[in-house]
């Protein structure tokens, strides 16, 4: 297990995302790369293992779910699980895709209220490729807002219009989060292997994003 973590970290410059490591484990176990005792059912246990074996060498990212986790119906329990991961040693939280800025802001406030003080980074996806996203939604549960879902259906065969919608929606979401007054140090983009829309979003919001961050720090 230690070797696998080292190999993984070499690819990602010492950054570890517990969710990605957990997703790899069943396949590694089936290939007899991992012994049964080395597999972790919960991210908290994996984070604790990394901290106990590697100290502070790694920066550890864990997943957050502003729209709710599909396997956990009680939101209070879900938030407590997140706190357990942070208490075990996580440095950052990257959220699922955020399409509702006010929902993300409320989520951050709930986290702060129970003592989760690490940076919470919103996951932003400029929507594109409607057929792919609708198919992935069955497994990933993107929690599309009504306007995003309607755009995916309406522009399913009009990629150019969908990309433009996705860029505008991502811009609006980022700026609404920043203007809310909560501290947002970074934004994490989900590019779906197509970085051009993301680059356009960032080019159009970075000046305003930087300005609001400066204003908040004064």
Automatic annotation (TrEMBL):
CDD domains linked to this entry: MTHFR
Pathway where it operates: One-carbon metabolism; tetrahydrofolate interconversion
Residue ranges of the TM segments: none
GO molecular function: FAD binding; methylenetetrahydrofolate reductase [NAD(P)H] activity
Family matches, as Gene3D superfamilies: 3.20.20.220
Entry keyword annotation includes Signal: no
Single biological process term from Gene Ontology: tetrahydrofolate interconversion
GO cellular component: cytosol
Record-linked Pfam families: MTHFR (PF02219)
Coiled coil stretches, renumbered: none
Cofactor names: FAD
Keywords linked to the UniProt accession: FAD, Flavoprotein, Oxidoreductase
InterPro entries in UniProt: FAD-linked_oxidoreductase-like, Mehydrof_redctse-like
Family: Belongs to the methylenetetrahydrofolate reductase family.
Record protein name field: Uncharacterized protein
